[in-house]
């Protein structure tokens, strides 16, 4: 048994690393080897080659199309600082997410952390919204369709992985145990229709105000957005990780 697998076996008791036949590796997965001196370049290509599959989904694996990306609901309860708002967005569609460009990937094998930087040129969001509260001193209330365009988005992520034993198969898998997500939006425009029961003067003034102050608005809702994105990435990554043992995805 190679030293590395011996350590793994110690790490995850009662679970062995057994190689799967190569035929079971689906074509959309570009396999990278842990001891490849160009591991990070390989992972970069692997992420790029996954992109069209994210766009259209992988029906055989139950992975839905991510273009547009749909969210059931985002709920924002902001009650400190300059913004006091209860907002609920549902039937959320986000377009453009799968046009992401990976900028760098570093897999720290010792710490079992993947650090990933992405660039997303543009996202467009359409959702139904209900909102009630105050921004600065201005009351805001509305119920309708929200539109948002976001450009020049930089995303920084770190995924802390951990190994576990799949008790059904006795094979070692990785899963995301913790995640750090931070994004920076270059520019945003938003439009909320049917604010103030359709009062056009108030509505136009508020939309103008929101666009002039988009930075502040995003700053306030950032924690919730980062949490939402983090959950999605954890779920997606763990679906793939749970399907294939570590030494299929990342053999040594
Ligand atoms: C949900 O969103 C889609 C895409 O924006 C839209 O076509 C559809 O009418 C919306 N459904 C409801 C119930 O609002
Ligand atoms: C977002 O971009 C689309 C397409 O360019 C445009 O039709 C829409 O009006 C924009 N929405 C906002 C809120 O800027």
Automatic annotation (TrEMBL):
Query: Could you name the Gene Ontology cellular component terms for this entry?
Result: extracellular space
UniProt record, GO biological process: circadian rhythm
| InterPro entries documented for this protein | Haemolymph_juvenile_hormone-bd, To_sf
Annotated signal sequence range? 1-17
- Pfam family name, one: JHBP
SMART domains, sorted: JHBP (SM00700)
Q: Which UniProt key words apply to this protein?
A: Biological rhythms, Signal
- PANTHER family linked to this entry: CIRCADIAN CLOCK-CONTROLLED PROTEIN-LIKE PROTEIN (PTHR11008:SF39), PROTEIN TAKEOUT-LIKE PROTEIN (PTHR11008)
- Which family does the record claim for this protein? Belongs to the TO family.
What is this protein called in UniProt? Protein takeout
- Tell me which species this is from: Frieseomelitta varia
């Amino acid at each position: 048994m190679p030293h590395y697998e011996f350590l793994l076996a110690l790490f995850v008791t009662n679970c062995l690393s057994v190689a799967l036949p190569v035929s079971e590796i689906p074509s959309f997965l570009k396999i990278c080897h842990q001891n490849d001196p160009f591991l990070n370049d390989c992972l970069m290509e692997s992420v790029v080659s996954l992109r069209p599959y994210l766009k259209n989904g992988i029906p055989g694996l139950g992975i839905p199309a991510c273009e547009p990306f749909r969210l059931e609901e985002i709920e924002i309860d902001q009650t400190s600082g300059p913004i006091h708002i209860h907002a609920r967005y549902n039937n959320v569609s986000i377009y453009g997410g799968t046009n992401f460009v990976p900028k760098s990937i570093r897999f720290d094998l010792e710490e079992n952390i993947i650090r990933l930087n992405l660039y997303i040129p543009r996202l467009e969001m359409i959702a139904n919204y209900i909102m009630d509260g105050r921004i600065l001193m201005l009351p805001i209330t509305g119920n309708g369709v929200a539109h948002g365009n976001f450009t020049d988005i930089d995303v920084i992520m770190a995924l802390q992985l951990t190994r576990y034993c799949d008790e059904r198969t006795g094979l070692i898998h990785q899963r995301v145990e913790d995640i750090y997500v931070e994004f920076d939006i270059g520019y945003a425009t938003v439009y909320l229709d049917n604010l103030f029961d359709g009062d056009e003067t108030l509505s136009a003034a508020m939309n103008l105000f929101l666009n002039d102050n988009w930075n502040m608005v995003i700053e306030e809702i950032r924690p919730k957005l980062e949490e939402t994105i983090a959950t999605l990435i954890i779920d997606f990554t763990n679906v793939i990780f749970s399907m294939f043992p570590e030494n299929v995805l990342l053999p040594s």
